[in-house]
Amino acid sequence: MGKDDVKQACQLTTGATVVATHMEAVNHALLTRAELRAFTEQEKINDRVFIPEDGEIIII
């Protein structure tokens, strides 16, 4: 998924939190955490998108 896909997921899922994983993990994942964070802030969806760091544990 690219950043536009993340935005679309937020638009299609009212009230859901999107968890962006596999960032910077493999050679075809070109979108960085920093780029996605900046994009989510620009699009005002940063309160709905969680971008964990490597090894970070998410408790849902």
Characterise this structure.
With 60 residues, the protein is mostly helical. It has one domain. Helix content is 33%, strand content 7%. The protein contains two helices and two strands; from the N terminus they run H-E-H-E. The chain has a two-stranded parallel sheet. Strand 1, helix 2 and strand 2 form a beta-alpha-beta unit.
Termini Cα gap: 22 Å
Q: Provide the β-strand percentage band.
A: 5-15%
State the helix count: 2
- Largest sheet geometry: 2 strands, parallel
Side-by-side strand order of the widest sheet: 1-2
| Number of E strands | 2
What sequence of helices (H) and strands (E) makes up the elements? HEHE
Count of separate structural domains: 1
- For the residues shown, what is the average pLDDT? 88
Radius of gyration (Å): 11 Å
The poorly predicted ranges are none
Task: Summarize the model shown.
The protein has 60 residues and is mainly alpha-helical. It has helices at 3-12, 33-42; strands spanning 18-19, 49-50.
Which short descriptors sum up this protein?
60 residues; mainly alpha; two-stranded parallel ribbon; 2 helices
